[in-house]
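Hello,

Our lab assistant flagged a job as stuck in the queue for most of the afternoon. It eventually completed. Since we weren't sure the result was trustworthy after the delay, we are filing this so someone can double-check. Below is the sequence as submitted and the structure that was eventually returned. Let us know if re-running is recommended.
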Amino acid sequence: MRVLPEGVVAVMAAAMLLSGCADEAAEPESPGTGTKASRDEPRAAISLAEARADIRAGLAAGGFEGARFSEMDNREFSACAVTAVVSTAAEPDPRDTERMADELKQRGWLRTKSSTNDGIQVLSLRKTSWTLDFIGGTGALPEQAQDFTGLSVNAVDRDCANRVAASPSP
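-- returned structure --
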């Protein structure tokens, strides 16, 4: 049984728990320019439904079918995040992941990270206040009895999560 590298587990846990909500100083490179994307560009916020639609379109473009979306246990944060898994028969093909990334780019998402480590693919994107992470491969996930093969999808609206975190608890 292969165990996911600590960094991958940390990315997944952070996205799922909505802690930290990303480094505001980190900026993706503008595609093809080698320069940092401008924070001064006006960007319209996107809704949870729009983020979910973009994710579904990206998965479809990559040929990933049967996504299982789940609701978060924390009701307040559920308006701020999208989580899903897509089981695959074999480890996701990097070409399929690239087609998914291309579709998301057409929908306005900027790639902030793309890497492969020990067979685990990580693709991170950003659109307005949303961060989106796809983690693909085979490995043991925390609190899961058997290996999982496929994609884990975690998207967080950082502005929404920060508002919820700052609001007083009932």
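-- support follow-up --
The delay was a queue issue, not a problem with the job. The result is valid. Confidence is low (pLDDT under 50) at residues 1-42. The CA atoms of residues 47 and 157 lie 9 Å apart.
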